[in-house]
Amino acid sequence: MSHTPICRWDRDSAWIAVLAACASLFSFLVYFHRGDILLFGDAVAHINIARKVFDSRTPGLLQLGTVWLPLPHLLMLPFLANDWA
């Protein structure tokens, strides 16, 4: 007995995913152009916590021990290691 595989992504789902990606990119570009990427107060706090891994009296991964989970801070590390990024 052979089954036809169920296609999880039909055209409507793919179209909605593309529209959502375009809306996300557009909103990022608008906020970036205005200089409002770090408008939310927690954004600056998260960057400061991640930055402590490199710039503190005792640098290292132990600086990530805060009330927030460390995953966002770990994802920021490659961008904070280089001033250009």
General description of the model:
The protein has 85 residues and is mainly α. 53% of the residues lie in helices and 0% in strands. It has 3 helices and no strands. The protein has helices at residues 11-34, 41-51, 71-80. Helix 2 crosses helix 3. The mean pLDDT is 81.
Tally of alpha and pi helices:
3
Question: Any low-confidence stretches, pLDDT <50, length ≥5?
Answer: none
The number of distinct β-strands equals 0
The quaternary state of the protein chains shown equals single chain
Number of domains: 2
The proportion of residues forming helix, as a percent range, comes to 40-55%
Topology as H/E string? HHH
| Rg result | 20 Å
Task: Quote the average pLDDT.
Answer: 81
List keywords for this structure.
85 residues, elongated, 2 domains, 53% helix
In short:
This protein is an all-alpha fold. The chain has helices at residues 11-34, 41-51, 71-80.
